Amino acid sequence: MRRSLLQSVLVYLCALMLAVFTAGPLLWLAVMSVSMPTDLTEVPLRWIPSDLDFSRYGALLDVADGSGRHFLSALRNSILTAGGATAIALLVAIPAAYSFSRRKASMVLLFAFLATIMMPPITYILPLYSAFSSLGLLNKTVTLVIVYAAMLLPFAIWLMKANIDVLPVEVEQAALMEGASTAFTLRKVVLPLALPAIAATAMLSFLVAWDEFFYALIFTNDLSAKTLPVAIADFAAGRVTDYGVIASVGVMATLPPAILAIAFQKFIVSGLVAGSVKG
Amino acid sequence: MLGRRQKQEKWMLLAPAMFVLALITMVPLANTLWLSFTDTRITAIAAPVHFIGLENYIYALTDPDFQAALYRTLYFTIVSVGLEGVLGIAVAVLLNQPFRGRLVLRALIILPWAVPTIVNAVAWRLIYQPDYGALNSLLYQLGLISDYRSWIGDPSTAMNMVILADVWKNFPLVAYVALAALQTVPDDLLKAAAIEGASPWKRFRSITLPWIAGPLLVVMVLRTIEAFRVFDIIYVMTSGGPADSTKTASFFIYQEYFNYLRSGSGASYAVLVAGISAVLILVYYSAAKRQAAGGTA
Amino acid sequence: MKAIKKLVLGSALATLAMASTAMADTTLNALFMSQAAYSEDDIKSMTAQFEAANPGVKVSLEFVPYEALHDKIIAAAGAGDDGYDVVLFDVIWPAEFATGGFLTDVSDRIPAEYTDEVFEGAWTTVEYEGKRYGMPWILDTKYLFYNTEILAEAGISQPPKTWTELMTQARQIKEKGLVEYPLVWSWSQSEAMICDFTTLTAANDGKFFDAGEPAFTTGGARDAVAFMKATLDEGLTNPASREYFEEDVRRVFSNGEAAFALNWTYMNALANDPKESKVAGKVKVVSAPGVEGKSTASSVNGSMGLGIPANSPHADEAWAYISFLTQKDIQDDYAKLSLPIWKASYSEPKVMEGQEDLIAAARESIAVMYPRPLVPSYTEVSDILQKNIHKVLLNQTSADEALEAAAERVKRIR
Prior knowledge:
Number of domains of chain A: 2
Helix content of chain A: over 70%
Number of helices of chain B: 13
CATH topology of chain B: MetI-like fold
Largest sheet of chain B: none
CATH class of chain B: Mainly Alpha
Structural class of chain B: mainly alpha
CATH superfamily of chain B: MetI-like
Structural class of chain A: mainly alpha
Radius of gyration of chain B: 24 Å
CATH superfamily of the largest domain in chain A: MetI-like
Number of strands of chain A: 0
Largest sheet of chain A: none
Order of helices and strands of chain A: HHHHHHHHHHHHH
Shape of chain B: globular
Strand content of chain A: under 5%
Distance between the termini of chain A: 31 Å
CATH architecture of chain B: Orthogonal Bundle
Oligomer: heterotrimer
Distance between the termini of chain B: 25 Å
Number of strands of chain B: 0
Radius of gyration of chain A: 23 Å
Order of helices and strands of chain B: HHHHHHHHHHHHH
CATH architecture of the largest domain in chain A: Orthogonal Bundle
């Protein structure tokens, strides 16, 4: 369908507004992170830095520097925690989803799973804290991995189930007829077909785990397990008069998931949609 | 009918998930349910615990502060998820039009979603900052305000400002899903309707919207669950202030547990919140199913 | 839960028994906060000194935001012997911590002569019902800071002695257009606001509770709220104060945008540091003013203490560490950001050097330090007051209505 000139203008205008709304805050965060500290306390603001100052990034990436060590270990912990939790969640969610989709496991059970994430997370903290401490598992990345995996599971199962629902069942049946085991069928037939869904679920799970703050705040004590959100809260709470420092930590904490999101953007869409047509 | 082998398999396949969930969430969940009928307090010494029946629930339901917190949570959930839905669909419709720079814009809009909640909260707090914040400066320089003002320090705007930050981060996910769903809407259906003289809006209402409602369901449910238990962004941006205007149910429960050390009554508040959330999701789920039935059946 | 607790308790006792034989290698877990009066670097170097003097004992330090300090202490109570051995706690928590059994009673460990050598106000920080639950460490109160340059330009020769005089001077400064808002406070809905409110209540000779009943609806406490509101109405107080914390106050004052500010000890060193402040060298500090006929100065007890959580398996080593950090020599060496608890320190040349005005103000303020309500449900009382006073400051209700509503709510605390 052809557009009139007016329609075209409208489209470009909307696109421009959208770009400004989306990019504005991000751009400003980036600008703050390289502005001179004095530029950031001018009234009204100086939008374009009088001089570029990359020293904050230098400090963050320098292992010898106190804040650099703090940041880099938090980055490492966050990658391990979010990565580990995502891997476990998927590993466990896929068979479960298959059971719900193809072995008629009760939907009531699925809803019970979902109910666990409707409970305000605060309520899990104290019982989990005393349980983990009696096992000597506090302040460990592995603890967060397990907790996050449990947190991610219900939604991952649901999403994967919805996706498996729409896969053609005939291929699986043919494989099973020929005497292939369920495990084999799952691995060789279902998984390749469900790849976009797996990528989408993984991406979604990773971001949720990367985001988590309150469990990490209570369960971790030092550089060996603190994750990025906790480190950011530390940076923001300390005696920081220079907003640029907080901005630079924010930019750095956003980079890894941003790169992943852009790399996986195709999958996110097809995975979330292919499965959910049937709901 | 499932064979015996398949029945066994059903449980074997579920076992790992059930094991993890039982270990981490089901046991504490059951414990929380039990606590909600007791007067348990958090102490470091053994203290007697009494079963008090529904007393906590009765107190909770007649507590005006909790009711206010619930209304705020509902407001937050409805407005922010609603806006995310509307904005998400609008953006998807826009990105479904051919125009130059479309691919760049598509890649760009996923970025807010990648910003961690804590970073998002801290960044917007800086933007709203009353003296050196970007928002005041921008509006002032554009001539839209004549004096710098308080954004998250003013009870009439604070909640909406938090919502804006939340919407900014979360609309991309909705937009992405809506966009993908839009691309599956069959063209001939739309064309046929156009020939019959249906207006663009009518076509959108009666064909496109029902078609994408199903796909949108999953993501909207996810967002609703998340919004209803919102905590982190409030904890960082406003801590419930000013004058309690952003104190949501989760924050309220946090105080009950960690500040007032009443785990029994805290548990009852939490169960109520989870219950309302579940009802909300069910209503939603069936409504969306009905809506979707028109398009996909 | 109970079974777990028993199990935990059992294992804690077992570990305690083992610890006494294997004292050689102990690691103490210590919890501090990142906004403590002492800087992180100060605390690290004190700790290094302790470790050097006590071979075999290591201290692992954790710094968290103040907002997370209480939560971490509470959560760690369920941690068995995996929790903390030393925690920094706020003056407002001992009642709650003592009733809940979170902290160890250390009354017997404290040498008798300390009672006289340490300020009375410092002791109230760690006491509840006659027992001591730690050693006071950070002796802190809010002082009145003023910008000498602005005062001089306004033709004011002496800082205010009373709050009324402070308002008069602020008016003068505003009329001359020297700054838009002469006063800046930390009046966000937070404990910071309650500290300022307490200071003003003390100045007005007010009371929070009388025989267990809320008494803040009349008298000094009510006058305090009315005063806060009046400074906002007159445009003397920066309206953004209603979303400020202490660090915002320091930033605004250090940028030369306020003539007066009420803040903790630490601001003295930082506002006078050219790297941190545009008004370095123009900052003077005095005790917060009084009210004519009622007081000559006012001050809130904002001190913090170091205690041993009840579940620590290393109480002896923990006490050694606490004793080390709170001893006079160490406190005298690090007296720039936080002042010592020891009376004798205030005539030590190395403590006084370069901050004579702060020491003079401290002598006066410490003598009149006023406590926030000493009740186990303090946190809730404070939250109720915060909400209602904030409503007054935000023009949502009148002082009388708000305080009446707060009193009603306080009576309903379970």
